[in-house]
Write a structure and sequence with these properties.
The structure is a single chain. It is built from ten helices and twelve strands. It is an alpha/beta fold. Strands 1-12-2-3-4-5 form a six-stranded mixed beta sheet, with helices on one face. Strands 6-7-8-9-11-10 form a six-stranded mixed beta sheet. Helix 1 (2-9) crosses helix 4 (42-67) and helix 3 packs across helix 4 (42-67). The longest helix has 26 residues, at 42-67.
Amino acid sequence: MPDIWLWHLGVSGWPLALAILWWVPSLLLLLAEVGLQMGFFHKLSVRILFTTILFSVMPKVVFILFDFMLPWFFALLPALALMGWFAFGFIEGWKRLEIRYVTYESPDLPPYFDGYRLLHFTDFHLGSFPKDSDFVQKVVDAANNEEPDMMLFTGDLVNNDAREVEPYLETLKQLHAHDGIFSVWGNHDYCEYGNNHTIAGLRNNWKLLYNYQCQLGWHQLMNDHFTVSHGMASIDIIGVENAGQPPFSNRSKLPKAMKGLGKDGFRILLTHDPHHWRREVWDRPIQLTLAGHTHAGQLQIGKWTPARMAFKEWGGVYRKGSQMLNVSSGIGGSFPFRLGAWPEMTVITLKRTLK
């Protein structure tokens, strides 16, 4: 629409070569959308789609809005400023790692675990980072410096292919926590966005990714649970496979993951998609839920983010009665860009309260 408006505003009078070039971003946008819908060249299509939106569509909209009030050369300035701001997101924003600190209090927490520290990290998307980047090492060092009792990863280690882990295998092996690292899979971890959609190709990716995480020493909870015990005190870590909503697949089986657990106890659920919390967790005895998936839209201006259009719980802490959900905006993304919604990890301190 902004291209059509600006065409009639004056672009149609440009020399033919420039007039043709004017429509190139719109053509790229169309081709990228077709690629995503058809399932081809997912990584390239995502990058073209969002780059075109950020550097073509949105600046043109800003120019049109200011053009109603100002001469065209003044209206051009905020559009150019917006492009510069977005450029910061591509060049530096995705490296701006933050640590968020949260406290969760519960009378169900065993006394031994009072003060227990969890590090929640999610959505690495390792295939997004430039090959010469030291960002993954920066994340690992920051996580270890927090000295958590346990690390919990809620999915999307890769973008499209399990082999994206290979360059970072030795770096990720440096992650350590006293009671271990637990993980679940997100929608990207099933590698369905690559170009090889054959059953054999998908199964090979699944096997590779599972083996990579085994090499890292991560405990993968595939619709399963693990009880962490210290003497007579224990907490249960429950993990489900991707609990997506359409168009994402739903592989979660929470009843299976909780099978064998007693009626009482302190439970932490790892799930990739925060939709799962409302859909299935509210009515279950699970005190703390950790999720990712949203990336907080990778763009946040004040309290606005495109993630709000798709998620009721898109980032931060949410509570319902005694239950709490933490949605992390994650570390990476489908393309290396962050602005406002900076990459993050969350340190959650568990505190026992009296009933």
